[in-house]
Amino acid sequence: MFAIVPFLAVSLLGSCSGLSLPVQEQSKGSPWPLPESITTSDNALLLVGIDEFRFFSDGVTCTTILDAAFRRYRNIIFYGPPEVSGTDKRTKPPKRKGAGYPGSVSGLTVTVKNCEQYPSLESDESFSLTVESGNASSLTANSIWGALSGLETFSQLAYYDGSGMLVMNKTIISDSPRFPYRGILLDTSRHFIKVPILLQQLDAMAYNKLNVFHWHIVDNQAFPYESISFPSLSEQGAYTPAHVYTQEDVAEVIEYARLRGIRVMPEFDTPGHTFDSWGSIKDLLTPCYTKGQPDGTFGPINPTLNSSYDFLQKFFTEITQVFPDHYIHTGGDEVNFACWKSNPQITEFMMSMGFNTNYSKLEEYYEQKLLNIISDLNSGYAVWQEVIDNNVTVKNDTIVQVWRPDWQTELTKVTSRGYRTLLASSFYLSKVGDPHSYDWQGYYTTDLHNFNGTVEQKKLVIGGEACMWGEFADGTNVIPRLWPRASAVAERLWSPQSVLSLDQARMRIAEHRCRMLRRGLQVQPITGPGYCREEF
User: I need a labelling partner for 485 at 20 to 30 A (CA). Which of 61, 151, 468, 470 fits?
Assistant: First the structure.
């Protein structure tokens, strides 16, 4: 049960829309995503001032990650933004007045049983949290990643009372995510997004308990990744030298994510999506022909040359050394066969292999050799659904990402073959419509198990991903376009299947939007008229 902010029940008339929409009510101190189990008392406790409040560490220390989290969440709870300088404080903590409250919250003891250097698909994110008076509040987690989730929830329980005091209700929470993979795909090829914006994106993910940053770092249009082994890729493939992620930039993003319990999974999409930006590698791309002659354009990676696979082996060896996550996304979608069909050397190879005119067989040939390279590097891989649709043989632990509209049929097919699966089809946030359509509600009500399959098949759906493609998104709009619409996806992927009430979600997501705004993120309103205590 959550109390409701006493907003005035007035109607506002949109000057052009003709719609009369009420001011959206907000919850108070309701965590997002909603926990698996939560019991909240109506009795509020005063939160002592920042100088008196203490985090205590018990059990395994996990010093680097936990100490950083303690510093971050002290700022978040009392000031708003995670980083606050002495001279530039977004919000000054109000003076503490204890009158009228039965007690105060002065500390939180965090007990962690296991430390890991990096999060993984198998990480235990469960935690238990109790909020009591004095120093009796406690957070217990099996892993450091569960502790980070618990600290985020603890920070969200704080809210301002009517007199501007920070308070928390007595609360007991037991929580764990429904799905282990909860991701955001961000495309930095179509438009380059500066590192500070990527870090803001990671903050927003942590505030919503999303744990995978799927970095679609390169594509046809640009190659902004600075390769150690093949520097010409970014030198010739990036928009300009200023539009490049250096090795230092990549390391900063990975470390920033790690400290927030977020995995960074890079995607290098081949053999398609390479036409221009990969062209600095000699003979890698297929020359296209018109009327029997090369026309100066190029198509997908040439799958017939051994030199192509020599390059891929060396390149992905580097990627496994730069990105610590077990999984690499190798793409495999939208391969246009037209250039392959036009090339006489490709045609000759096809005939020698017995493929005749079946270019899906040629794609299968390429994918099999690429995935064998990735497998030999002891790395896992994720692929877009076309790889499975074209009957490529892949490892049992392959992750298949479903993105085409007929997702229920595809989930049935992929899981029937025993592959773990991600759903992206229902969560394409780069598609922006009329805000009056409340598109976030469609994301919120999507049931990832709504397909024909056995109980065992549905267990193979390991999560989903909100996708922000970059054709019309860059650093000026990517944060407000994603948030808090992606928050709806986050709750669907974390909270129990039974959490479905849109009436409650509207109040809670309105509060959560104000919470993210207070933390320094420029997030858009999505529930209609209203206001936040602190505007951007």
Answer: 151
3-state class (DSSP) for residue 257? helix
- For residue 386, which amino acid is it? E
Catalytic residues: 334
Question: CB within 8 A of 510, min separation 6: which ones?
Answer: 24, 25, 26, 27, 527, 530
The total of other beta-carbon atoms located within 10 Å of residue 97's CB is 11
Torsion angle, alpha carbons of 68, 73, 76, 81, to 10: 10
Residue 9 pLDDT exceeds 50: no
CA gap 331, 37 in Å, rounded: 38
Nearest to 257 by CA among 201, 197, 208: 201
Q: How far apart are CA 394 and CA 397, in angstroms?
A: 8
Residue 163 one-letter amino acid: S
Calculate the alpha carbon distances from 102 to 109, 156, 168, 318 in Å.
21, 21, 12, 59
| Closest listed residue to residue 4, CA positions, set 143, 163, 112, 159 | 159
* Dist. CA 153–CA 155, nearest whole Å: 5
Q: How confident is the model at residue 504 (pLDDT cuts 50, 70, 90)?
A: very high
- CA proximity to 55, closest of 72, 31, 43: 72
Surface-to-core class of residue 1, CB atoms within 10 Å of its CB (0-12 exposed, 13-18 middle, 19+ buried)? exposed
| Percent helix / strand / coil, the chain, rounded to 5 | 30, 20, 45
Q: Element (H or E) spanning 352, and its range?
A: helix 344-353
Two structure tokens written together for 145: 């990643």
